[in-house]
Every structure is written in C-alpha cells, then in structure tokens.
Automatic annotation (TrEMBL):
The gene is coaX. A monovalent cation. Ammonium or potassium. It comes from Amycolatopsis dendrobii. Pathway: Cofactor biosynthesis; coenzyme A biosynthesis; CoA from (R)-pantothenate: step 1/5. This is Type III pantothenate kinase. It is found in: Cytoplasm. It catalyses: (R)-pantothenate + ATP = (R)-4'-phosphopantothenate + ADP + H(+). ATP binds at residues 6-13, 130. Homodimer. Its EC number is 2.7.1.33. SUPFAM superfamilies: Actin-like ATPase domain (SSF53067). GO terms for biological process: coenzyme A biosynthetic process. The lineage of its organism: Bacteria, Bacillati, Actinomycetota, Actinomycetes, Pseudonocardiales. Substrate binds at residues 105-108, 182.
Length: 257
C-alpha cells in the first residue's frame, strides 16, 4: 500500500492507496514543534491495522520545520520502504512557466499534476486551505501561476481578534444574505464574501486562459475548507477533496519503479 502525506500549514492529511484506489484518509493538525518520533507514533496510530502494510511513501511539506522532522521519521521508521519527498529534482512532468520555479510550493505542483491527469482541458484549481490558492493550468498541463488570498479561517480569526464586538461563529449559511444579528452578519460576509472573491478571481483567470482560445476551462475545488463555499460559488464545477493525495500518488509512480 502507498502512504501519501500532505503536510500543510494547518493540517497534515494522510491517504492510503491500494493501487489506484484511495482506501482511507486521515487528518491531523500541524504542529511545527512535533518531533519525528511523535509524528511516527501519530501516523501509526491513525493507520491502525494498515500501519505494517505500507510498501511505499510519497510526501510533501510546505512547513520547513515539519519537513525536517518528516525526513528524519522516514529515515528512522521507514528506512527500507521506497519513498519520494516532493522537492526540486523530483520528476513530475510539470513545466513551471513562472518567474522563479523554486518559489512554487510542492502542493501547487502536485495539484497541477493531478488536475491535468483528470482533465484534458485547461484548469483552474482553487485550494481552500490556510490561504486560498487559485492556480492556472494550461491544456498541456503547464503550471502558469495564480493568485493567493487570505484563507477563510485566518480571516475569521483576525476579524475576531481585531474587532472588540465581534467573535468567531459557526460557519454555516445564515437565513438570508442580509443578516439580522451579529452572528448572521458575520456568516453572510464570510460565506458569500469568500464565494464572491473566488468567483471574481476565477472569472478573471479564465478570461486570460481563453484570451487566444475558446477551449473549455475546468474549475476544480480542493482543500479542507472547500465544502463551506461550494454551494455558494458560481464558477466551481467540480470538487476533488483528495486532489493533492492523487498528485502525490502520481509523483510516486513517476519516480519509483
């Protein structure tokens, strides 16, 4: 079985593949102070009866401190298991058409690979995580760049911290866009505001992608916070929650034979 590990700024997502089938996935919070031993213990605990069935590992980390401990964990506890850590030099087949390819996060890279694997069109990937990433992919699978916006949770946290009369609220749709109380006003601004922000960015990116062509563009949402916005977005057509894990599987297949 292939274990995929996606270390993000907020959560670590694990996926277990048997062939091309995702048979299980788990989520844990990211702690930059976590040691390699703690990480290994938590991973084994989540995998449960599958812990000793791991025959390959594909991983990435956008958190440098955790990346260091991840490498130690893999070397100490999975020394004999074939493994790939996504970094410069790893074969992905993705051309990076940006000013500084070294700046492109590993998560954006594998999302590009996965989106192109799923669709033979140009794509826009909206990744709802700590930040909201809106990335453009050509019909040939080239990474073209994108846009960053503050993520939903950090925006809510910042608002609650800086406004004395406001607080964190449950992120569910209010009765109407026009909120009748403080909670509903916050819910309306968060849900419909972020949906409008994403739709605006996506529409502008799609126009640029179709500047010289009228070919279709597939808009894909992924990330842990995507379900909050999916029902309100007018541009997102597909939800692939395991897009990054799929990309990690594809990277492993390209590098380990």
């Amino acid at each position: 079985m292939l274990l995929t590990v996606d270390v993000g700024n907020t959560n670590i997502v694990l996926g277990l593949y048997e062939g091309a089938e995702l048979v299980g996935d788990w989520r844990m919070r990211t702690d930059a102070r976590m040691t390699a031993d703690e990480l290994a213990l938590t991973v084994r605990g989540l995998l449960g009866p599958h812990a000793d069935a791991v025959t390959g590992i594909s991983a990435l980390s956008t958190v440098p401190a955790v990346l260091r401990e991840l490498r130690v964990m893999l070397g100490r506890y999975y020394a004999r298991v074939p493994k790939v850590v996504v970094e410069p030099g790893v074969r992905t087949g993705v051309a990076l058409l940006v000013d500084n390819p070294k700046e492109v996060g590993a998560d954006r890279l594998v999302n590009t690979l996965a989106a192109h694997h799923l669709h033979a069109t140009a794509c826009v990937v909206v990744d709802f995580g700590t930040s909201t990433n809106v990335d453009a992919i050509s019909a040939r699978g080239e990474f073209l760049g994108g846009a960053f916006a503050p993520g939903i949770e950090i925006s809510v946290d910042a608002l609650a911290a800086r406004a004395a009369a406001l607080r964190k609220v449950e992120l569910v749709p209010p009765r109407s866009v026009i909120g009748k109380n403080t909670v509903e006003c916050l819910q309306s601004g968060i849900l419909y505001g972020f949906a409008g922000q994403v739709d605006g960015l996506v529409r502008r990116i799609v126009r640029e992608l179709q500047h010289d062509s009228s070919d279709p563009v597939t808009v894909i949402a992924t990330g842990g916070l995507a379900p909050l916005v999916l029902g309100e977005s007018e541009t997102i057509k597909e939800h692939v929650p395991d897009l990054t894990l799929l990309g990690l599987r594809l990277v492993y297949e390209r590098n380990v034979r």
